[in-house]
Automatic annotation (TrEMBL):
Pfam families: MFS_1 (PF07690)
Name of the molecule in the record: MHS family MFS transporter
Major place of residence: membrane
Oxidoreductase listed as a keyword: no
Membrane topology: Multi-pass membrane protein
Places the protein is found: Cell membrane
Keywords in alphabetical order: Cell membrane, Membrane, Transmembrane, Transmembrane helix, Transport
Residues in Major facilitator superfamily (MFS) profile domain copies: 13-422
InterPro entries: MFS, MFS_dom, MFS_trans_sf
Family matches, as PROSITE patterns: MFS (PS50850)
Length: 422
């Protein structure tokens, strides 16, 4: 392959890694959007709007605790049997759980059974996604030629803004076409129903893949690890621990600028759902631009250096959250969301090359997946709920400190990984 552009076979692999994660993240984001907008009222007893929103955010957090379990299970089979079959299985579990949410009864119809079933399916979403990102990242970087790892590794990350645009764009369209009563009664179910089409596309693409060269070579050199997770924790504890904390910033900034911001903007700030979704859609392009810039920058320097630069920028960005988000001006709110999501691109784009690079091929699926998804609990799983509680008690200033603190945690972790990551 030339240094100017990927060959046709590589473009098919990159398309598969992007399409698959776009489908998975679409599923994940429609839940985040619905949790911010309607799940509190539909699936929980009558209470204050803030209490219902907190309950919905709690179910949102549940998937993050399922993700490390999914990472361990899918990582086990991904390191022993291969990347392709594991990626297909994770997509089917995620898609099936998402589709089933469309048919759930509400609390008014089934009482406690409704939130219980919602939690079960949310757990299934998280379990499936736990095996998704690591496999998609390995599919890209293990097929990358020298000098292209970060640019190949950015393609799974680009699935995030694509999935977000599809999810929130659909909710915005429904808000325009349906009355609030229609949306609350049945309209919210449509994005979950439509996920079956996207999952079908993802499966069609992934079933055409072959195994990655790095995995095939590792299997020739030695038999697969009998217990990849045990080998990972025994031989690579520093990489696993520091890699976990290195991704905290990325999750915190994303879910504060999406799920929390949407809930806060449509309750405390009083904006309509359609208005705030439009503002977020206008900002998400900066995340995609940040991911692409980070991929090129990381290949020119190193993924770790780009991640550190993004963390430093996010520390400063946390101090802008309160004055810009609380200003009442949609332009300033859009400005902060655009800035935050651009910084998100810098701390997310290089992860596809950075985390797999910390581990050898025989435990790489498990290592990258476990670090990414446990970091998701610490950085994103509880972020909307914690931020909502902080905002209820002290306004947006402590929320900004929370974001800066998450960035400091990742920055310190990256400092400890210099020898392994450079």
């Amino acid at each position: 392959m030339s240094d100017s552009k990927p060959a046709a076979s590589h473009r098919r692999i990159l398309a598969a890694s992007l399409v698959g994660t776009a489908v998975e993240f679409y599923d994940f984001y429609i839940y985040a959007t619905a949790a911010s907008l309607v799940f509190g009222r539909l699936f929980f007893p009558v209470a204050s709007p803030s209490a219902q929103l907190m309950s919905a955010y709690a179910t949102f957090a549940l998937a993050f605790f399922a993700r490390p379990l999914g990472a361990a299970v899918f990582g086990h089979f991904g390191d022993r049997l291969g990347r392709k079959s594991t990626l297909v299985a994770s997509l089917m579990l995620m898609g099936g759980s998402t589709l089933a949410i469309a048919f759930l009864p509400t609390y008014a119809q089934a009482g406690w059974v409704a939130p219980f079933l919602l939690c079960v399916l949310r757990f299934g979403q998280g379990f499936g996604l736990g095996g998704e990102w690591g496999g998609a990242a390995l599919l890209a970087v293990e097929n990358a030629p020298p000098g292209w790892r970060a640019r190949f590794g950015m393609f799974p990350q680009l699935g995030a803004p694509v999935g977000f645009i599809a999810a929130n764009g659909l909710f915005l369209l429904l808000g325009v076409l349906l009355t609030p009563e229609q949306f609350l009664a049945w309209g919210w179910r449509i994005p979950f129903l439509l996920s079956i089409v996207l999952v079908g596309v993802g499966l069609w693409v992934r079933l055409k893949l072959t195994e990655t060269p790095a995995f095939a070579e590792a299997m020739k050199e030695a038999p697969p690890a009998k217990a990849p997770l045990g080998e990972l924790l025994r031989d690579f504890p520093l990489q696993t621990l520091a890699g976990t904390f290195a991704v905290v910033c990325c999750f915190a900034i994303f879910y504060l600028t999406t799920a929390f911001a949407l809930g806060y903007g449509t309750t405390k700030l009083g904006y309509s759902r359609e208005t705030f979704l439009g503002v977020q859609l206008g900002a998400i392009g900066f995340m995609a631009a940040g991911i692409i810039a980070a991929g090129y920058w990381a290949d020119a320097t190193s993924p770790r250096r780009v991640l550190m630069a993004g963390c430093i920028a996010t520390v400063a960005g946390g101090f802008l959250l309160a004055p810009m988000m609380g200003s009442g001006s949609l332009w300033l709110i859009w400005g902060f969301l655009s800035l935050g999501l651009a910084m998100m691109g810098l701390v997310y784009g290089p992860l596809g090359a950075f985390l797999p690079g910390l581990f050898p091929a025989r435990v790489r699926y498990t290592g990258a997946s476990v670090a990414f998804n446990i970091g998701g609990i610490l950085g994103g799983g509880l972020a909307p709920m914690i931020a909502q509680a902080l905002a209820d008690k002290g306004g947006l200033v402590p929320v900004g400190y929370y974001l800066s603190g998450a960035a400091v945690i990742s920055l310190v972790a990256l400092l400890f990984l210099r020898r392994q990551a450079e």
